[in-house]
Every structure is written in C-alpha cells, then in structure tokens.
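Technical note accompanying the year-one report. For the benefit of new consortium partners, we illustrate the data format agreed upon in the data management plan: each record pairs a sequence with a structure-token string. No post-processing was applied to the example shown here.
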Amino acid sequence: MRKLTNRRAIYNALKTSLTEDRSVVLVGEDIGTYGGAFQVTSGLQRKFSDRIIETPISESGFCGLSIGMALAGMKPVMEVMFMDFTTQILDQVLNQAVKFNGMYNGQLNVPLLIRTVAGGHHGYGATHSQSLENIFASVHDLNIIYPHSTQDYYSTLLYSIRNLISPTMFIEDKSVYLNKGEVDFDLVYEPQTTMISHNDEQWSNVVISYGHSLDLVLEAEKRSGQKWTIFDLVSLKPLKNLDIIFNVIKSNQHDNIVIVTESSSYASVAEHLSYLITTECYDDMGGPVKIVSSKDSFIPARKDLESKVLVSVEDILAVVEG
C-alpha cells in the first residue's frame, strides 16, 4: 500500500500497462518530453520511448491513427488534453470506432482507450472547463468511466487496459488530480457503482454522484451534521451494479434521493439514472428523484462568475435540506 495522488495513480497504471503488454502505446499532444498538460505521463518517455507517440495539435487526426492501430492489434491509449476538445474526435468515435465490430459481424474489435480531462472550478474559461460525458453517453457501444477515488483511478484504468476490447473513454477530473489516497497495487477491478457512506436509518438521504462532485457531496454532508448514504457511480456507461442503490432505496423510506453532477442535467446520465431509479423503486420512494447540476450555460473564466454556474456545496444543501 502506498499513499499517492490521483495523478500519480494514473501514472502507475499506465506504467504497469506499458511494462506488461507490448501492444500498449500512448498517443497524444505533449505527452512525452513535457509529460502531458497535467504532468500525468511525466517520465514515461524515458522508459518507453518507442511507445510514446507525440502528435501535432490534430485530435481528429491522431484519433484516426489510434483507431487504425487498434484495428491492427495494438492497444492505443490516446490522450485528449481537455475534454472540451473531444468534440474534434466525435465523428471518428461515433462513425468509425464503435461501428466496426457490428458492421463486420464481430470479426473486428477496436481496443481503444481515450483518456481526457474534464471539469471546471479553476478559472480556465468556457472552452477548457466542460464536462461533456452526456454527449458521449449517447454513443452506442462506448464505455465511459469517471472515477473519483485514488484506488479507483489506478484499479479501473489498469483493468480497462488489460481487458480492452471496445472503445472506452476514461475521464479524469482535474479538480481531484491532487487528491490523495491509499493504493493497493495488487487490487485491479472492473469499474462499477460503489457505496462510500451508509446510513441505514429510515428517512435518511441518498445521494449519488461521480468525479469531483463527490468532494462537494462529502463536504455538504459534513456541513449538514447528518450522515447520508452516498454512492459513487464510477462507470457512467454502462451503469453497473445499480442493484446496490435500488436495494437501499427499497429497504427504507428516504427523505431525499438526489443525483449530483457537474454537467448540465438536460438529456444527461443523471436524468437517465433518475428514470431507472423511478422505474425500479417507485413504490418505495418518499418523493421524486432530485437532480443538482451546473447551470445550462457557458462557463466564465472569472472565478466569481464561474462559481455561479457550476454546481456547489450550497446548491446540494439547498436541495437536500429544502
């Protein structure tokens, strides 16, 4: 066991993957000498120079390159510096990467993993602060992973690369890169919904979230002076192990069932999860599922204006206690 930042946990998962599997190759802008925009890949080029491919600023181009390598039997782990720029690869993902397996009757796989960095709260402005998971959640046969804990960053990334068959998006929240946690390097597991806090009293609050929003949820719980039942989704598509949520809701009446997300709630993972919970647990719910999200707006660079757009601890408390 070692205590690491989330950023270093990702580095260790990538290093292990490159060490144990010669078919793994990293692709992206500034990932070699510079070590990536957030220094996640710093040092890997010295150890694996033949499998670190630095690219021009051409997301669509190096996504096409990565898809081609995947079709040829490699396991490209492609980095898009900011999730805002993943709109440049949407055509390659939607109309190419996820289509080959079906169009060729299962004869072709595309073992491609796309790492990207999402989230605001840093004053980076409208085009470097977005969480666009909802756009990609509508793409069939694309797996989406959005961890929060240090162990999850290491274990689910390593698991995903080892078992890579179909296109997978691995979203890293810049706001939790420096969060620290204990990591067991022997622990490798599939991403799925986990319970991180539990209150079995009747009329307690059930709160579901992922990414940096979980930090806000935990802070809101602390300020409330109450103990909540809190779930971390980890896997956004497919949504896995939801029975753990359903069983808790069915076991007791609850004051609130709340989903918290930094993205917009319109046509979202949060709305779909709300539908699934309502369909499965309607007779056991004390009221409708509530969603706390960021405003449906561009994200300003000025921190005081940014804070009015992005989801906050105060927003969560207002819904849970309102």
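Partners are asked to follow this layout when depositing records. The chain has a mean pLDDT of 96.
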